[in-house]
Amino acid sequence: MKKTSTRLADGRELIYYDSRDDAVRGAVDRRPLDPTVTTSEVRRDPLLGDRVAIASHRQGRTYHPPADECPLCPSQGDRLSEIPDSSYDVVVFENRFPSLAGDSGRCEVVCFTSDHDASFADLTEEQAGLVLEAWTDRTAELSHLPSVEQVFCFENRGAEIGVTLGHPHGQIYGYPFTTPRTALMLRSLAAHKEATGGENLFDEVVARELADGSRVVLASDHWVAFVPYAAHWPYEVHLYPRRRVPDLLGLDEGARTEFPQVYLELLRRFDRIFGEGEPPTPYIAAWHQAPFGSLEEFDGVNRDDFALHLELFTIRRTSGKLKFLAGSESGMSVFINDVPPETAAQRLREVASS
Questions:
Q1: What is the pLDDT of residue 61?
Q2: Cα distance between residue 199 and residue 215, in whole Å
Q3: Catalytic (active site) residue 64
Q4: What is the Cα–Cα distance from 145 to 173, expressed in whole angstroms?
Q5: Residue 57 has pLDDT above 80, yes or no
Q6: Residue 242: is it exposed, middle or buried by C-beta count within 10 angstroms (0-12/13-18/19+)?
Q7: Parallel, antiparallel, or unpaired: how do β-strands 283-288 and 309-314 relate?
Q8: Which of 100, 212, 267, 320 is 20 to 30 A from 175 via CA?
Q9: Rg (Cα) of the chain, in Å, rounded?
């Protein structure tokens, strides 16, 4: 992998990740952009204890542009985009309309391919491996910023999810705090460790799913994917490396080499869940990594106790019908799932590639 860092016209950082070591990236951003101005602010809710990012500047962000005006496609002639070069493998750049910025963290965009009409599932294993390298590199780089305590790599796919740009891409958020979801896991991890005299809850969850087998979707030498026992979403899969590591940086060579094959297979199965002729399945893919900030509030837990894993889920519950977050989910955070996890796992096994 070759990494080339440059700057856009308004001062934002852009990084090319190339599979070829001889790639040359010297294109200059020719757009007449003013310096980026953000109003990002993080406020703490005193009752719930969580935090909300206030970012009014995002009201003016690009919204469903026509394909020939896509800001994530390479620049061609006089059609100038966020990527100055006329081609690319993988690109990461600072978001022009970030939810988090400055002392409140950082937001980046990850373009998986220059092919506007592709999806992550269409990538080759080599391309998917390069995306993994980019995720890992950005996790390492962002972890050193004083304003970042947790790094979150994720992809939103599909208009139903709320995606405003159709080009295959994801995002990376560098939060200035430990997110509420991660804090819940760390508290459960700490309580279990104390109650059992040091046993790891993540290890037990994975071992229990493998022993039961009814919710296992696929298992390889280095990875295991299963529908969790208490899945929140109609079709939800958790993907764990068999060797527990706290973050993407901890993956060994075997896990890195095997990841593209396993992950692409999962994504392709998701697109087959609802049968032939159905539109692509909308989904969210989210990497859960250990925070880089202090874990003192989680008694007895350290970073190595956390288990890196990817959560993949769709809000589509059946053909033509979506799972909406209604009163119980939105008002009380109590999910009601219409699809039994065992049924979801069976379906995901049925649609395996031949």
A1: 59
A2: 23
A3: no
A4: 12
A5: no
A6: middle
A7: antiparallel
A8: 267
A9: 20
Residue 208 has pLDDT above 90, yes or no: yes
pLDDT digits (tens, 9 = 90+) for 111-158: 999 999 999 999 999 999 999 999 999 999 999 999 999 999 999 999
Tallying the residues shown for the chain, one arrives at 354
Average pLDDT of the residues of the chain? 95
Q: What share of the chain is helix, strand, coil (3-state, %, to 5)?
A: 30, 25, 45
User: Is a pLDDT exceeding 90 seen at residue 293?
Assistant: no
Q: Which residues pair with 4 in a beta bridge?
A: 16
Query: pLDDT at position 311, please?
Result: 98
Number of CB atoms found within 10 A of residue 290's CB: 24
Residue of 169, 192, 238, 309 with catalytic role: 169
Strand ranges in the chain using DSSP code E only, listed in sequence order = 2-7, 13-18, 41-44, 51-54, 90-94, 106-111, 150-157, 169-175, 216-219, 223-226, 235-241, 283-288, 309-314, 316-318, 321-322
Q: Mean pLDDT, to the nearest integer, of 65-79? A: 90
Amino acid, res. 242: R
